[in-house]
Amino acid sequence: MPTTEPAHRGVKICGLTEAAGFDACIEHGADWVGFVFFERSPRNISPVQAQQLSARHKGGPKRVGLFVRPDDETLERVLNGVSLDVLQLYATAERAQAIKARFGLPLWLSQPVSSRAELPTTCTVERILIEPKPPAQATRPGGNAQKLDWGLLSGWQPNFAWMLAGGLNPANVAHAIAQTGAPAVDVSSGVESAPGIKSPQAIATFITQARGAAG
To answer: Ranges for the N-(5'phosphoribosyl) anthranilate isomerase (PRAI) domain (predicted)?
Structure first.
């Protein structure tokens, strides 16, 4: 499905919970900011908190809400509290289409992979996020600071919009892009000073490294 791509390498900063991190995303030109609506995450945020952060700056990055296998009631409750531009989902493709039909917002679908054979060949949403599969003992499907084997994506050139996630940080994002050619990248724990607390300096460095990367 078509989607509007940034003219430069796209950068999403996910898991924002406090003003300093949000303001750094604005200052340094992130393309998307992500709010996590999943209780098991240390970055879980209420719709009221997300709206308060979002209201700090009119316009700017698109607001993305991350949900894990949400029911309609959860989505409705969140959307009644905060204005979102994109819904990022851990869900089946069938469930994603049902959500699209009801709520009408652009959808991103997370696709954890552990082998090249698991890379998607088609896309029925606006964007696919490619990330590593969580460890067996994980309580969350993502946000575990795991790094994907980037070699799995070497030469992979899908005809749909996608984003690389998982284990990225300011020190490795340029290398990840060089190996994968990712048109956009997503970071959360890699720019934190503590779980759920973003480092403005790390955000600035990450965006600079991602935008300057060859790939």
So the answer is: 11-208
